[in-house]
């Protein structure tokens, strides 16, 4: 079946699912497969659950007209998403990537743009080769804006996403030492993330650039339209007014400073706020709506969440971690007011041959400050000689934490996603 024909079926059945547990009557099931799963084996189950069609790439009950056999289900899903995206040539598609803060920045941008436009965006962190096409296919005809998050851990991934997202605008939050196993080095990170800038340069797009970052300025050179922001440099400038508990930001105008009281923890969120303000201003969102949208945004999903448990104050930042985000989180926590400060840190993943060195560096940073307790979780930390409490996994750390019965403590919990450090609070 040709993509044009499949697209006509999609218009009649716009629900696209890849998980039979989420099937609703009339959906189209795409039988994706990977190293540990094969959706083709569940095609008939999907039809029995109410799917209108099942798209497969293996021979499954050829007599059933509801089964559509193609050569490659993943490639077809991406081609279908491209076909759908091309129906929206009249609206901006803003792509976001970066090593740290891209999901928070995406959520902030979505919040400010949604105050004035019908805006669709990536749900959660569905920012990979499957999540991005599914996001595109959820965009409806009433869309006025789209904000698409792109994650990557290998070269050429962003380049591939751009082929079907076709962004008109883009933002790279930063270049950090994340996914070094795939990128090889920080230079590899910069080159790979800048694939977004390459697309914008070649297609007369607009880039939003942190003008305080020399590498961001360098890699964005030659893009037709560049809008800048920063603390020292930029068309939109901002500064930190207060970072005890929640971050308060001042947006510096021609004659005054607009104060924005966020619900975000950490000075490292300043560039994320500035990026969202810059994009909102570029698209003519009124200042009062920008302020209200950012102030009303509350982080979720273990991303810099400030919470309380009994008499303890907890910063839960356990969605992900890499050397740069870990460093700024520790340093920010050290500067915050509070008694009995406790660090509970999970290991950082996908660092390849740099893993031991990077974990040693984090241990050295920890030693620069005074802490009530330091708990390190994961084999990467246990391999390093250190004076702190060490556990193999979050379950062991949870049992220890329950036995301590801390009172009036301030606790930072952070680690890579696979460490599941949020379990400590269960």
Q: Can you give a write-up of this model?
A:
The chain has 426 residues and is of the alpha/beta class. The chain has 3 domains: 3-77, 3-Layer(aba) Sandwich (Udp-n-acetylmuramoylalanyl-d-glutamate--2,6- Diaminopimelate Ligase, Chain: A, domain 1), CATH 3.40.1390; 89-296, UDP-N-acetylmuramoyl-L-alanine:D-glutamate ligase; 305-425, Mur ligase, C-terminal domain (Protein-Tyrosine Phosphatase, Chain A), CATH 3.90.190. It has helices at residues 3-12, 43-48, 73-85, 102-114, 131-136, 157-165, 180-183, 186-193, 195-202, 214-219, 270-282, 287-296, 323-335, 355-366, 379-382, 394-404, and strands spanning 16-17, 28-30, 33-34, 37-38, 53-56, 67-69, 93-97, 119-121, 145-149, 169-172, 206-210, 225-230, 236-242, 248-252, 257-261, 305-309, 312-317, 341-346, 373-377, 389-391, 410-414. The strands form 4 sheets. Strands 8-9-7-10-11-12-13-14-15 form a 9-stranded mixed beta sheet, with helices on both faces. Helix 4 runs parallel beside helix 11 (270-282) and helix 13 (323-335) runs parallel beside helix 14. The longest helix has 13 residues, at 73-85. The radius of gyration is 23 Å and the shape is globular. The N and C termini lie far apart (49 Å). 46% of the residues are buried.
